[in-house]
Design brief:
about 120 residues, mainly alpha, 6 helices, about 75% helix
């Protein structure tokens, strides 16, 4: 059984498992898979959770707010700021750097395409 407290409070086992798997991916810096699993889990938080799960529902939603980012670089940036607030400087450095690299990778294919066109005009 996954996330026993959530399941005991009525969350389906498959949704609770998504949360656990997302935590695994997050610890391994596999942010795209973590976001994919969390997007499956997040609708659970749209309705009030009964029992003890309701106590930490607001905090859980806050911690998972990074999933609303536009792209990988945005997810990494938001996670870096969350870890900064918690004082986890190793994860801040790793995620902050990854956010910069992801942003640059997103921006550069376009510049290479433009350079390629310019080079073909010269020759």
């Amino acid at each position: 059984m996954s996330a026993p407290l959530l399941v005991a409070d009525g969350v389906t086992d498959d949704k609770a498992r998504c949360l656990e798997e997302a935590a695994f991916y997050d610890r391994d810096f596999n942010i795209p898979d973590a976001a994919r699993k969390l997007n499956t889990f997040l609708p659970v938080l749209d309705a009030p959770l009964p029992g003890a799960s309701g106590i930490f529902q607001k905090k859980l939603r806050e911690r998972l707010s990074w999933v609303g980012g536009a792209d990988l670089a945005d997810h990494q940036r938001k996670l870096a700021y969350q870890h900064l607030k918690r004082g986890d400087f190793v994860r801040v450095a790793a995620l902050g750097w990854e956010a910069v690299v992801s942003r640059e990778c997103r921006a550069r294919p376009r510049s290479r395409e433009i350079q390629g066109r310019a080079g073909s005009r010269r020759g």
